[in-house]
Amino acid sequence: MNLKYCLLILILIGGMIPGCNKKQRPEGLPELYPFAIKVIQDGQPLAGANISLVAQDPALMRWPCGGNTNEEGIVKLTTYGFEGVPAGQFKVLIMKTETIGGVHNAEEAKRQREGEDFGKEEIFNLIDPIYRDQSTSPFVIDVKASYDNPISEFDVGEAVKVPIKMPGE
């Protein structure tokens, strides 16, 4: 067999061995613990909400934590792309937006250049804006150094549709 083919086979086999292609953990990333949040709106699970955590310990602020809720309104939080969250206290920020009008993909951009009008882009908060700001959000979680943290549930109240003002408007 040709030497090139032997090397190619070895490379392919090496790529299939578990652990060979895992993402490298950044230096200093603390131990992470599984943690999930469930978001409720109007008494129903809220899918598609963005969850961000703000560490109350300045030493943890360099590690972004969060995720997006699934159809059951649950997010399994990640930190810097790795499953789990460091132990500590975090402010929970929740947001969900909707964009109406404007161009949203390359095909629409092409059609707009050809003269099609997609209207002015408008963005709306679908959750009360108090939950997206760390100075006003009442939600806090305390992540224990445990692999058995309970799911935290947060109710964001009634659905809203509040326009987001863009800079200069």
- The total count of strands amounts to 15
Order of helices and strands: HEEEEEEEEEEEHEEEE
Helix- and strand-based class? alpha+beta
Largest sheet: 6 strands, antiparallel
Summarize the structure.
The chain has 169 residues and is α+β, with helices and mostly antiparallel strands. It is built from 2 helices and 15 strands.
Question: Which descriptors would you attach to this protein?
Answer:
globular, 4-stranded mixed sheet, alpha+beta, 13% helix, 2 helices
Please describe what this structure looks like.
18% of the residues are buried. This protein is globular. Strands 8-7-5-4-10-13 form a 6-stranded antiparallel beta sheet, with no helix packed on it. Strands 2, 3, 6 and 14 form a 4-stranded mixed beta sheet that branches. The chain is of the alpha+beta class. The protein has 2 helices and 15 strands.
Sequence-ordered SSE layout with sheet pairings:
Layout: H1 3-16, E1 32-33, E2 36-41, E3 44-45, E4 50-55, E5 65-68, E6 74-76, E7 78-79, E8 82-83, E9 85-86, E10 88-95, E11 97-100, H2 106-113, E12 122-125, E13 140-143, E14 152-155, E15 162-163
